[in-house]
């Protein structure tokens, strides 16, 4: 069995571009930035940002175009897809995108770039532990080199 699944939670890098397909359907494309914090070999905290190309079709595309703007957070679930085309100079061009299967609007709170008060867009809420069960975290820090994968 093969698996092609992507989960991203980040901020839009540009306003969504909504277009109509020849079939009459809708397509939206936009960029999403995700951040990662880690410690380098000297123990100094580092940050890295990745930029992703996102595409959505149909009703989800219309909702994203309607409610989302540059800087707002979005949770995306989808699959990787690479397409190719011949450029004007005869060179083959490639673009890897995440095709949206499902999405949720991000935190609409007071953080910068949030949806803000009065927005009709629902908020993303991370799952929590079931009632009566508390998550038990280890006392010592986990060394990434100890993880078997």
Describe the structure.
The chain is mainly beta. It has one helix and six strands, in the order E-E-E-E-H-E-E. The protein has one helix spanning 58-67, and strands spanning 6-12, 17-20, 26-39, 45-57, 73-86, 92-105. The chain has a five-stranded mixed barrel. A hairpin with a 5-residue loop joins strand 2 and strand 3. The longest helix is centred in the middle third of the chain and has 10 residues, at 58-67. It is globular, with a radius of gyration of 19 Å.
What features would you highlight for this structure?
149 residues; 5-stranded mixed barrel; mainly beta
What would a concise description of this structure say?
This protein is mainly beta and 149 residues long.
Put simply, the count of helices is 1
The secondary-structure element order is EEEEHEE
Instruction: Kindly report the average pLDDT value.
Output: 82
Q: Provide the spatial order of strands within the biggest beta sheet.
A: 1-3-4-6-5
Helicity level: under 10%
Radius of gyration: 19 Å
Poorly predicted residue ranges: 109-127
Gap from first CA to last CA: 19 Å
Strand fraction: 35-45%
Query: What is the number of E strands?
Result: 6
Q: Structural class of the helices, strands and pairings? A: mainly beta
What does the overall shape look like?
A: globular
């Amino acid at each position: 069995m093969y698996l092609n699944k992507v989960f991203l939670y980040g901020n839009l890098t540009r306003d969504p571009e909504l277009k109509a397909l020849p079939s009459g359907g809708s397509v939206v494309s936009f960029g999403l930035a995700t951040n990662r914090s880690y410690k380098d070999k000297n123990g100094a905290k580092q940050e890295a940002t990745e930029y992703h190309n996102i595409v959505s079709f149909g009703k989800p595309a219309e909702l994203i175009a309607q409610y989302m703007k540059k800087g707002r957070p979005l949770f995306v679930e989808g699959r990787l897809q690479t397409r190719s085309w011949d450029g004007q100079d005869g060179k083959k061009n490639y673009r890897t995108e995440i095709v949206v299967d499902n999405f949720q609007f991000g935190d609409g709170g007071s953080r910068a770039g949030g949806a803000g008060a009065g927005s009709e867009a629902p908020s993303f809420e991370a799952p929590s532990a079931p009632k009566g069960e508390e998550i038990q975290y280890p006392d010592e820090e986990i060394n990434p080199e100890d993880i078997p994968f």
